[in-house]
């Protein structure tokens, strides 16, 4: 396209910058360095999945970190992500268990934490931190990915100037 514009004598065109999205997964059980997982640990699948979904939606990953369940650590990583992002997505730490670090840090900052009537999906939150929207999804990998597709894929694609993803369907062989 650039060559065609240049051949037509067009010297400038309006463009959109890609939205910068920070990703912050939570859980002291997460393994992020590719090393072996000890008993009770799991690999950070949500960080990988969200990064791929963000890129597919036309945005760029501005930061990707994993926090343990310490509120001070999560708060510091959240503030760092907010500083370099147009939007931040968190995964995990939002339910009603003993170590819900996202809820603990964001509720005093005005986050709206609620249960969304969808499965998978469940508990979610939204907040604005220093003018940056923060979307908080559950820690279950399927819930995280479904929540992203339902709530963020369309708006991110629209912001990037990409067409909506057409729904797909198929006919069942049997009812």
Automatic annotation (TrEMBL):
<keyword id="KW-0460">Magnesium</keyword>
<dbReference type="GO" id="GO:0006777">
    <property type="term" value="P:Mo-molybdopterin cofactor biosynthetic process"/>
</dbReference>
<comment type="pathway">
    <text>Cofactor biosynthesis; molybdopterin biosynthesis.</text>
</comment>
<dbReference type="InterPro" id="IPR001453">
    <property type="entry name" value="MoaB/Mog_dom"/>
</dbReference>
<keyword id="KW-0500">Molybdenum</keyword>
<comment type="function">
    <text>Catalyzes the insertion of molybdate into adenylated molybdopterin with the concomitant release of AMP.</text>
</comment>
<dbReference type="GO" id="GO:0061599">
    <property type="term" value="F:molybdopterin molybdotransferase activity"/>
</dbReference>
<dbReference type="Pfam" id="PF00994">
    <property type="entry name" value="MoCF_biosynth"/>
</dbReference>
<feature type="domain" description="MoaB/Mog">
    <location>
        <begin position="22"/>
        <end position="159"/>
    </location>
</feature>
<comment type="similarity">
    <text>Belongs to the MoeA family.</text>
</comment>
<keyword id="KW-0808">Transferase</keyword>
<protein>
    <recommendedName>
        <fullName>Molybdopterin molybdenumtransferase</fullName>
        <ecNumber>2.10.1.1</ecNumber>
    </recommendedName>
</protein>
<dbReference type="InterPro" id="IPR038987">
    <property type="entry name" value="MoeA-like"/>
</dbReference>
<keyword id="KW-0479">Metal-binding</keyword>
<dbReference type="GO" id="GO:0005829">
    <property type="term" value="C:cytosol"/>
</dbReference>
<dbReference type="InterPro" id="IPR036425">
    <property type="entry name" value="MoaB/Mog-like_dom_sf"/>
</dbReference>
<dbReference type="GO" id="GO:0046872">
    <property type="term" value="F:metal ion binding"/>
</dbReference>
<keyword id="KW-0501">Molybdenum cofactor biosynthesis</keyword>
């Amino acid at each position: 396209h650039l060559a065609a514009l240049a051949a037509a004598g067009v010297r400038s065109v309006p463009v959109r910058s890609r939205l910068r999205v920070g990703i912050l997964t939570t859980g002291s059980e997460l393994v992020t360095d590719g090393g072996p997982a000890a008993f009770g640990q799991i690999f950070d699948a949500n960080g990988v999945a969200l990064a791929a979904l963000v890129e597919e939606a036309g945005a760029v990953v501005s930061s990707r970190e994993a926090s343990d369940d310490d509120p001070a650590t999560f708060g510091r990583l959240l503030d760092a992500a907010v500083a370099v992002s147009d939007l931040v997505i968190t995964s995990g730490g939002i339910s009603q268990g003993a170590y819900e670090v996202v809820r603990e840090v964001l509720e005093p900052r005005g986050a709206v934490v609620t249960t969304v009537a969808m499965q998978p999906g469940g508990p979610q939150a939204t907040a604005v931190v220093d003018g940056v929207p923060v979307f908080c999804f559950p820690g279950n990998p399927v819930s995280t990915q479904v929540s992203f597709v339902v709530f963020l894929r369309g708006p991110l694609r629209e912001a990037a100037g990409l067409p909506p993803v057409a729904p797909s369907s198929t006919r069942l062989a049997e009812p």
